[in-house]
Write a structure and sequence with these properties.
- This protein is mainly α.
- Strands 1-2 form a two-stranded antiparallel sheet. A two-stranded antiparallel sheet has the order 3-4.
- Strand 1 and strand 2 form a beta hairpin.
- The longest helix has 18 residues.
- The chain is globular, with a radius of gyration of 30 Å.
C-alpha cells in the first residue's frame, strides 16, 4: 500500500508548517496496529496536509496513498481515512487551483468508492455514499448505486448516510426537480433529481425505521420542502419518540474512551447521541425560516421522555434563539424546566444556554431562582482562569433583569470572594440592584491599593458601583485611583474602571477633575476625556486629547475617541477635519463612528448619509453605532428611520458571527436603540 512512497521528493513539497518530509511517517502511522499511533497520525495529517481545510501540494501527493489505505481490509481505521479524503476533495473554492486538482484526483479514482460501497465494514459504508455523489461521474450511475445500496443495506446508520447522500445528490444534480420537474427534465434530460426526491419521500414513511425516516425528512426539508408532509413536525416528534424508545442500553453507554489524541478527544466531546443530534440539526436547518414549525419541533424535543433528546434540544434551542427574533418563549421555558434534572450533562447544558440568553431567559426565571436559592454551591464558580466567577444560573437570572437576583447577589457579596464578572451583570438589573450599593461600597473600602490582588478585587466592584451611579463611593474610588502604585500589576485595568465610575457619577465627581486632567496624556486618555466631559462639560479641556486619539494608531482607540466626540455635539467642531478624514478612509466601523460624530457635530446629514447607509447594508456590525446615533438625534435622525423600521421588521437577528451570547446581546441592544429612535415602546 506504500509502493512508491520513498520515490516522492517529500522534502521539496510543502504543507502547513513547511517541508513535508515527515509525511511518509504519518501515512505509515495510519496503518499501525497501535490505536494511539493511528490516532496521532490522523491528528498529524489533519494538522499538516489539511489544516483548517486547506490543500497543499503535499496533500495532492498523499491522495494515492490514502486511497491505498482505504481499500486494505487490514487497516483498522479505514473509515477515518475515507473521511479525510472526502474532506480534502469537498472544498468549495473553485478558484483554488490545488483544491480543484484534489477534486480531480479523487474523481479520477472514484471507482475505489464504487468497490467500497458494499464493504464489510459498516463505518466504511457510511462514508462511501457521500463520496459517490461528490466524485463519481454520471448522475444516473450514482443514483442507481444509491438505490441498489438502499435495497440491500441493513445497518440503520448506513441507511441514514444513504438518505443524506440522496439529499446531496438533489442539491448537486437536480435542485430544480424539487420545484419544477418538467422544466428540469427539458433542461437536463433524464429526471434524476426528481427520482432522488421520490426515493427520499419513500424513505420518509413506513415501513422504514425512525432514524431513516427522520433523515429523509431532514433532506426533503433542505432540498425539496414542497414535498414534506403537511404535519411534518408532529410526524418528526413521533419518530423521535419511537427512535428513543428503541435505543438500546449500549447506545446510551459512553463506550471505549479511545486513544488520548486530538481526534480521540474530539470524538469524546461529541453529543452522547451524535446521530440523533445530527438528524434534528439537519431538519431544523432544512425548515429554515419556518420559525413556528421550528419552535414546535424544539418543544417536542425538550419535552421528550429521553434526557438525551432533551439535551440535544437545549443546544439547538440556543442556536434557534441566537438566529431568530420570535418563537422562543416556550422553548426557553422548557430549557428552564431542565434545571431540575438529575443528569449533570442536561442540567449543565441548560445553565450554559440560559446564561447566554440575557433578557430572553425571562421565561426560565422561576426555575433559575429556585436553583440559586436551593443550591448555594452553584452561586460562585471557583478554580477557573480569571478568578472566581458567578455561577451560570445566578448570572442568567441577573442578566434576565429579574429582581429576585438582588438578594442572592447580596449573599454572595457577604461571602469571602467577589466574582470577577459581577460588574458586568449588575447593570442588567437596573434600579433593582440599588440595594447592593452599600455592600459594594463596604467591599471597595476594604480593598488595599497596594496588594498584588488589588485589580482582581477592585475592578468588578468599581464596575458595579459605576453602573449604579453610587456617588457615595467617590472617596473609595479616588483612594484607589490615587493610591495604587505606578507599576502595580493590573493598575491600568483599575484606572480604567475607576475613571468609568467617575464618569458615571457626573457633576458630583468634581473632586476628581485634577486626576482626570492628569490622565489625558496617558493610555487612559479617551476614558478620562469622556469622564471629564461628563463631570465638567468643558470641551476645551477634552477636545485636544480626543483629537490626538482619533488620529492615533489602533482602530479601537480611534473609534472610541470618535464616539466621545459625537457626545460633545457642536463643541467638537475643532475635530471636524480629522473626523471627516476618518469617515472617508477608515474601516467600516471607523467610518460609521466618525460619520455619526460629524452629523451630531454639524447637523449636516446629507454629507454622511451615504457613508452610514453603505455601512449599515454592507457591515452589520456597525448597526448598533448607527442606530445609537439615530436615537441620540431624535427627529433629526429621520433620514435613517427607514433602515430602522426594516430592521425591526426583520425576523432574523442582524448577525450570528460572535461567540456565546455576544451576538444575541448586541442584537437586543440594536432593537432597543431602533425602538428608541422611532419612539416605539420596548
Amino acid at each position: 500500500m506504500f509502493r512508491g512512497i520513498d520515490e516522492v521528493d517529500w522534502a521539496s513539497l510543502r504543507y502547513a508548517d513547511g517541508s513535508a518530509q515527515d509525511i511518509p511517517g504519518l501515512l505509515r502511522g495510519l496503518a499501525s496496529a497501535d490505536p494511539t499511533e493511528r490516532g496521532t497520525a490522523l491528528d498529524g495529517m489533519y494538522g499538516a496536509v489539511h489544516r483548517r481545510g486547506d490543500v497543499y501540494d503535499a496533500t495532492l501527493a498523499c491522495v494515492p496513498f490514502l486511497l491505498s489505505l482505504a481499500v486494505r481490509e487490514e487497516v483498522p481505521d479505514r473509515a477515518e481515512v475515507l473521511e479525510l479524503l472526502v474532506s480534502i476533495g469537498d472544498l468549495g473554492g473553485d478558484g483554488d487551483a490545488l483544491a480543484a486538482r484534489a477534486r480531480a484526483a479523487l474523481r479520477a479514482r472514484a471507482e475505489v468508492f464504487v468497490r467500497l460501497a458494499g464493504d464489510a465494514d459498516s463505518g466504511v459504508r457510511r462514508v462511501v455514499p457521500g463520496a459517490l455523489v461528490r466524485f463519481l461521474d454520471g448522475p444516473g450511475r450514482v443514483l442507481s448505486l444509491l438505490r441498489e445500496r438502499i435495497l440491500v443495506e441493513r445497518d440503520d446508520r448506513v441507511l441514514t448516510a444513504l438518505a443524506e447522500a440522496l439529499g446531496l445528490f438533489v442539491r448537486r444534480h437536480g435542485h430544480a426537480a424539487a420545484r419544477s420537474p418538467r422544466r428540469h427534465r427539458l433542461r437536463l434530460g433524464p429526471d434524476h433529481g426528481a427520482e432522488a426526491v421520490r426515493l427520499l419521500q419513500a424513505l420518509s414513511g413506513p415501513p422504514y425505521g425512525p432514524s431513516l425516516r427522520l433523515a429523509a425528512l431532514g433532506q426533503l426539508a433542505g432540498c425539496a420542502p414542497g414535498r414534506l408532509p403537511g404535519d411534518v413536525v408532529p410526524v418528526a416528534v413521533g419518530l423521535l419518540r419511537e427512535r428513543s424508545g428503541r435505543r438500546t442500553a449500549q447506545g446510551h453507554a459512553c463506550g471505549d474512551p479511545g486513544p488520548e489524541t486530538l481526534a480521540g478527544r474530539l470524538r469524546r466531546l461529541r453529543p452522547s447521541d451524535e446521530e440523533g443530534s445530527r438528524l434534528l440539526r439537519v431538519l431544523h436547518s432544512g425548515l429554515g425560516s419556518r420559525v413556528a414549525d421550528r419552535a414546535e419541533l424544539l418543544c417536542g424535543q425538550l419535552s421528550s421522555p429521553d434526557p438525551l433528546d432533551r439535551c440535544n434540544g437545549v443546544w439547538m434551542a440556543a442556536g434557534f434563539v441566537r438566529e431568530w427574533r420570535d418563537g422562543h418563549e416556550r422553548p426557553v421555558a422548557l430549557v428552564g424546566a431542565q434545571l431540575g434534572c438529575r443528569e449533570d450533562r442536561l442540567h449543565d447544558a441548560a445553565v450554559t444556554v440560559l446564561a447566554e440568553l440575557h433578557a430572553l431567559a425571562a421565561p426560565a426565571a422561576g426555575p433559575l431562582h429556585a436553583l440559586v436559592t436551593s443550591r448555594p454551591e452553584f452561586r460562585v464558580r471557583h478554580g477557573e482562569r480569571g478568578g472566581p466567577a458567578l455561577g451560570g444560573a445566578l448570572k442568567a437570572l441577573a442578566r434576565a433583569g429579574d429582581a429576585r437576583a438582588t438578594p442572592v447577589l447580596a449573599e454572595v457579596l457577604a461571602g469571602p470572594v467577589v466574582p470577577h464578572d459581577l460588574g458586568r451583570v449588575i447593570p442588567h438589573l437596573g434600579p433593582a440592584a440599588a440595594p447592593l450599593a452599600p455592600a459594594l461600597r463596604r467591599r471597595l473600602a476594604r480593598v488595599p491599593p497596594d496588594s498584588p490582588c488589588t485589580h482582581e478585587q477592585a475592578v468588578p466592584l468599581l464596575a458595579a458601583l459605576g453602573s449604579l451611579g453610587d456617588v457615595s463611593s467617590l472617596p473609595w474610588v479616588l483612594r484607589l485611583l490615587r493610591g495604587m502604585p505606578e507599576r502595580a500589576r493590573g493598575r491600568e485595568a483599575v484606572v480604567h474602571a475607576a475613571v468609568d465610575a467617575l464618569g458615571a457619577f457626573g457633576g458630583e465627581a468634581r473632586e476628581a477633575v485634577p486626576d482626570l486632567r492628569a490622565l489625558l496624556v496617558t493610555g487612559c486618555a479617551v476614558a478620562a476625556a469622556e469622564a471629564l466631559w461628563s463631570v465638567t462639560g468643558d470641551a476645551d479641556a477634552v477636545v485636544p486629547a480626543l483629537l490626538r486619539e482619533v488620529a492615533a494608531p489602533g482602530r479601537d482607540r480611534r473609534c472610541r475617541a470618535a464616539a466621545v466626540l459625537a457626545r460633545l455635539g457642536p463643541a467638537a467642531r475643532p475635530a471636524l477635519p480629522e473626523l471627516r478624514r476618518l469617515a472617508g478612509s477608515g474601516d467600516s466601523l471607523e467610518r460609521a463612528t466618525a460619520a455619526c460624530a460629524v452629523w451630531r457635530t454639524t447637523g449636516e446629514a446629507d454629507r454622511v448619509l451615504p457613508v452610514l447607509r453603505a455601512c449599515w447594508t454592507g457591515h452589520p456590525h456597525t448597526r448598533v453605532v448607527i442606530a445609537g446615533c439615530a436615537a441620540a438625534l431624535g427627529q433629526e435622525g429621520a433620514p435613517l428611520h427607514d433602515l430602522l423600521r426594516e430592521e425591526l421588521a426583520s425576523p432574523r437577528r442582524h448577525r450570528t458571527d460572535l461567540a456565546g451570547g455576544r451576538a444575541l446581546h448586541e442584537d437586543l441592544v440594536l432593537l432597543r436603540l431602533c425602538g428608541e429612535a422611532l419612539g416605539v415602546a420596548g
